[in-house]
């Protein structure tokens, strides 16, 4: 071998070993880092999925305002889509590298709290002397608060006014009988229209929460007893029987078993469905996609003759603080800022959601008739989402969904369905 | 009888010429060249596989701070779960139907494209056309077919029906299998076309001279010539299809009820919906064992070819 060739060979060898060593070092180095102090400033990390869902730059502007009000504290936003944030937080929980402040969904709270990765906010609020009287709600596990809902997206009933008018229905239904009659009338119009739409996809089983259980909550019902599952009670039984009745009458849009929330919104937007229960957050989406669609918003119908307060399903952007945070007080300052009357109203306005601070009033309530109507419904009832704070909430919905599919497919009775669901849920609690 | 142990003579007693040892540098050199690959394989394959196998013998890992060793409890739980058995049945149906259809359709199209009756330009156009499904990612395929097969979708419009292709428990498994067949046949087609183009024309000419008809030439010339490719492709496709996740998850999510539940969706749900990471690891280990059987045959076939 020539000297030159040997030299080349040696270079390749050295490069190989160096690359391998660097690779190992880099792997070993992963996981280090996190929040810290830089030049006297405290930097807190805030992981959430909210920034990408808001108009460009709006959320960062709020953070800039916070930094201005709190000199010495810097906020580093870690933003990603909902699903990515969820995975990142679960991975962070496992490896003990949670960001200081975390955006939370009610469905995760119980799991994180039992793992001990999010901090007890009741204790923290006590330590910093925070007055929680303005908070609309707090999500608790074993009597301690772990999440504060920052803004809430409610799920009222949407009605396609033109379709209802064609079917001879003058006003949105207010009770179950009226709803079933209206659904049948719209279905009778033919031309692929259906009265109601029910997404039961097992991939994203939130239809159980928003479209099925909402019938029980709207009549003041519950699916829990003493914090445990109680799906065989009269409230849930009557809601499931009602849904089955509409299924048997053929007034529900076809394709339920694999339908997801976005399919539901699409069918409604295209004018093929008379009524749906859906998030208020979709109003703008529907208006943009079909500006000609005439629709209105009302409370989810209750049982005939029910006069009490109506539970209205909702989803929240919640907030919590990591147990492992080195700067819990600074982290809570950010929570306090987001929950303050002014900031909370502003965030609600840009998100098109309802505030988590009872004193805040978002701008859109004054500007937009539909939102104003929804705000009225929100204030007349109470936010009801019993899945929030339950362990493996999504799995509970999926288990319910699986049994409901068997029922609707004619494979079992309502009693059998609810008993099996009850047993499956008890195993998860 | 006593064992007789003969002690080796002390080296000092009979001085031997020092064994010629390869210098350390010479021995280590090949490992130096291999180092980057070895490190990558170690970090990206060995560590995760060993961790997952370890998890399958512990109680709920990741969520419990100090998981305990539970022996084969997790394996008993998973293997006695009715849904797991349903998932195995569905995966077998899905995989075998897909692979057989991939092979038949792929071979059919490859032979059409290889026909001397087709001109070069039309061959190029059809080749591009037939290969399209393979270029889409699983997400695109799922969205596309969900829209086509929706109750108010194009397919029902064209057929003038109102069938719930993906939402009906009776049809869902067949429908997702069909979608997977559509998405996967081009891989067979392209590979077999390359194989067909390598079959020497003389063999066909000789067979024709011997009086063989088209059918006989297909069975006695084409198929034997393609056999090594067909076996490799089939084994690879069996491994890939049995692990198909994205397509199932994005079209049916394993439903309605459990009719399209596969081993992959079952494992995913255990991990990311129930947060039972130990059970999910157990299910993954079982899938790994099944895949290893196929991989064993694949490697053996490759060796035999060499």
CATH superfamily of the domain at 81-273 in chain B: MetI-like
According to DSSP, the number of beta strands of chain A is 16
The number of distinct helices of chain B, counting runs of at least 4 residues, comes to 12
Tell me how many strands of chain B there are: 0
> Unreliable stretches of chain B, pLDDT < 50, 5 or more residues?
none
Q: State the helix count of chain A.
A: 17
- Looking at the structure, the CATH topology of the domain at 81-273 in chain B is MetI-like fold
What's the N-to-C terminus distance of chain A? 72 Å
Give helix and strand order of chain B, one letter per element, not per position.
Answer: HHHHHHHHHHHH
The CATH homologous superfamily of the largest domain in chain A is named Periplasmic binding protein-like II
Radius of gyration of chain B: 27 Å
Question: What class, by secondary structure content of chain B?
Answer: mainly alpha
Strand content of chain B: under 5%
CATH architecture field of the domain at 81-273 in chain B: Orthogonal Bundle
| Largest interface summary | A-B, 43 and 39 residues
